Amino acid sequence: MKKCGLLVASLVLTTVVWAQVPKGSVLIRNGTVLTITNGTLNNTDVLIIDGIIRGIGKELDAPSSIMEIDATGQYVMPGIIDAHSHIGIDAVNEGTNPITPEVNVGDALNPTSVSIYRALAGGVTTSHAMHGSANAIGGECETIKHRWGTYDPEIIRMEDAPRTIKFALGENPMRVHGEGKKIKPRTRMGVEQVFRDAFSDAQEYMRDWEDYRNDQTGKAPPRYSGRLEALADILRGEIIVHCHSYRADEILMLMDVLKDFGVDKIVFQHVNEGFKVAPELAEFGAMASVFADWWAYKFEVYYSTAYNAAILTRNGVITSINSDSGELIRHLFHEAGKAQKYGGLSDDEALALITINPAIQLGVGDRIGSIEEGKEGDVAIFNHHPLSIYAVPQKTIIDGKLYFDVESDMDDIRVDVDPEEEIPAFEFFDQHDHDRCMQDVFETLFIKR
Amino acid sequence: MDLINSLLTNRLGLFIFLGLAVNTLQAQSEEVRPVTEHFLIKNATVIPMPGKELTTMDVLVEKGIIKRIGQDLPVMGGARVIQADSLFIYAGFIEGMSHTGIPNRSKSGRNSTRNGDAERAKVKDPGNPPNELAGIQPDVQARNKLVATDNSIAEMRKLGFTASHTVPRGGMLPGSGAVILLHGSSGDQMTLKDGVSMYSQFKAVRGVYPATILGVIAKWRDLYRQAEISQNYEQRYSESSVGLPRPERDKVTEAFYPVVDGRLPVFFKSSSAMEIQRALVLQEELGFSLVLADVKQSAPIAEKLQRRDAGILVSLDLPKEEKEEKKRSQRGSQKSEVADSSKESAKVDSIRTQTDNPDKLDPEVSMLMARKRKAMKSYERQAAILDSLGISFGFSTLGIRSKDFRNALDRMIEAGLSKDAALRALTVSPARMLGVEQVMGTVEEGKLANLVITTKPYFEKGTQVAYVFVDGNLYEYEIQEKGKGSESGDGDPVDFTGVWDYSVKVPGESADGVLTIMMQNGELEGEMTNSQFEASRAVNGIMVEGKKISFKMEVDIEGQETELEYQLTVDGDYFEGEVLAGPFGNFPVEGNRVKSPENNN
User: Fold this and answer.
1) In this structure, are residues A311 and A279 in contact, taking their beta carbons and an 8 Å threshold?
2) Is the minimum CB–CB distance between A96 and chain B shorter than 8 Å?
3) What pLDDT, in 10s, does the model give residues B456-465?
4) Domain spanning A80-369 has what CATH number?
């Protein structure tokens, strides 16, 4: 009996031993510091010791052994955060079932993926490596820090970041499962029912296990299900939902579903029609992660506006701008600039879209996303104001360690080299992670569905 | 035996009919001598275990056992005496993990539907397929899959292997492995010990759950957790079953019980640095006993391995060497001969010609080549690095061609692996890992008579295997005189006919099928199946030049009629090459001959 109880406890508490994450110390001298949460500080030093910001001020004292960076005439901002990407992972979609919360892209991390370095070169220090949008309930995602130069997946995992999971509404799950496999969901109504059925099953599962734990007399244990365990954790509020969505009607639908099942941690991704339901999102406490000006790539994404981020922000919705792309991730600061151009956000509001707001959406707003004492030492240094079109990222620092320096940017920074690779004279194919949202789903050529 | 004879005769007939050289047949020069069960090997140098050497020793083999090792042992009546004055005796080698004796699926070539793909396509709910279709069959026993006449057994034996830990082929959980002796006329006879491992791979299946590495790992956890719960309940039920529902029986779950107990190790095929670490994460989380097998890329994470409690089997399948580069540049120039008008390939050709002339290399290309060489070194050095860190390991032989074995060993030794460490990895280490060190791994009295007898110390260049004893059964090999070319030259006509299993590497996945090439009225004809279509389809435009064969076929890719062009180079029973798929790009393809030509008379 006792053994059984222990066993159940061990199911809940997955023990993970964190690898020793590299940390450094650095003093950044005399920059224009864009703190995001506390305005702009001119001619100011930022001191990071053992990975943590320990001082912000003028002419700070620091041990002489610490590396100094002269940022005179330069702009020091918190490391940029991307709330929606698919970089650094070897698989994106387990697109065989409309409900797969038991899978976890954290199991397929690949720290040698060159996209990580490309993101660093754009001042991006943290990204949200997400499951794709093939399934109504996809897999768990992983918040990664771009600690480049390792073969160890544990190094890029952001230690103790909250669990997040990918949901998807609309055309993608309908096409993959409804059209592709002739199963539910074939319509938007079906998508809603998938959520309701899944959550109801999870409630029943929780009840069954609780009954069993309370009194085992005459009972066999219920069947174990990683899928229902994960759904139960969503119902318990232990996982933040990040939902791929476009249309206003289905955004309202999902909020209704979540309300019915008592789930309140929700970030809508893409959310192109978010501007139509901004007050409703604010009232629910839902957050939004949008594109600056990307739309019309499928039918449900036509009704869109570049004012989306500004409208959402003005309505009190915590909003971020994401890349969903291994290319766009390198210039998220341009994307934030667009949101300023269309909608007139202030500098701090525009920069919050790529720093503190995505940090809050990933549940790590207390650790990263602004330059504050006690926060983690993730910093991007630009030669011009990052919202200027002339801005070029100069240095990218994570946990006080320098990972990208435009001055010592090597031609070939790959960690992992294939000993059998063909060396072509020219790059014929550009194989970055552009739009991997539907990867692993469309099976072409030799692969039969 | 009759069957084999008639097959041989038929093959011979065919070869003669086709006017082809018969030289491919003389490879089988070994012979079984069941005349006596007593052998006395006289005056040999015995290497009883790595690092030790006894000279002018006699070894007496009796009824499958090493009876005595000593000097001037008396010759007894009935014993066959082998004069081994200049020969070296080693313990028979052990394959740490292989598919030896387990043929690559039973298939009949023509008109055969690709069982898996076809059935998977019919599954109503691909999200919940039956276990067999999802590659989940841990209840399968390697022993029941053995085919005693499979070529691989003789091929490995010829190299000095006498025993093998062989595992079934399949998906993420193909079954449990057995330690077999490379001698015997049936699976049962060959099996020394079964149920020695649960074999697992990070292998997804097309179209059904789990279709990605994500699903495979999630499914693994699910199966393991369920097994923990079920086993616990069965325990409770066996203590007092009154009033309790009877436990549900499930062969997959039950196959996990000994793993959960820690009695059965999981041999995880984990080739790359990422796969190795994924297997380690699963082990850490679930707590089973783990052997990392087919390990190719442990060099960058060797220190992590040092801290972990996992067995290691280093793959003998090293990345292909630089001579590939040369081949490619040859192919490139041939291409330009056929007046390929496209600009890009002309540029590629010019660079390929450049690679032949290092002085003219583009600096970027030469930098990339230097990195590639360095990467190659890291693969070759892996065994030496592990050994220098005091990590013991065996070798696994999945995916190697027997003729590449010596070359792989030589490259590892050249990269710093000591000969003793190499010998340990071939003998004592796998014996210990597989729990058979009582009976094999060293040349000691009382152990199984598994011996390999060579003309020189094994790791010296030009060594040849003269005799192999498996379980006391003698195999003799013809010693080739030095100077006589044993390799067949390029001038011999190549036989393309037969049934070939091929696989195309599409990014992130590989797709496979069967290619059948036959001779009809003096012309080559071919047909193939592929994952996209079930029935065989004819290929057209077969062209042959030396070892190269090319042909075309039309396929429908997402509604678009596309012509695929296959360009293959055949080497014995193996081919490799490319599929040119028009706008979709080019994909590597390789294949193995699984069936020799049928008699078409």
Assistant:
1) no
2) yes
3) 999 998 899 9
4) 3.20.20.140
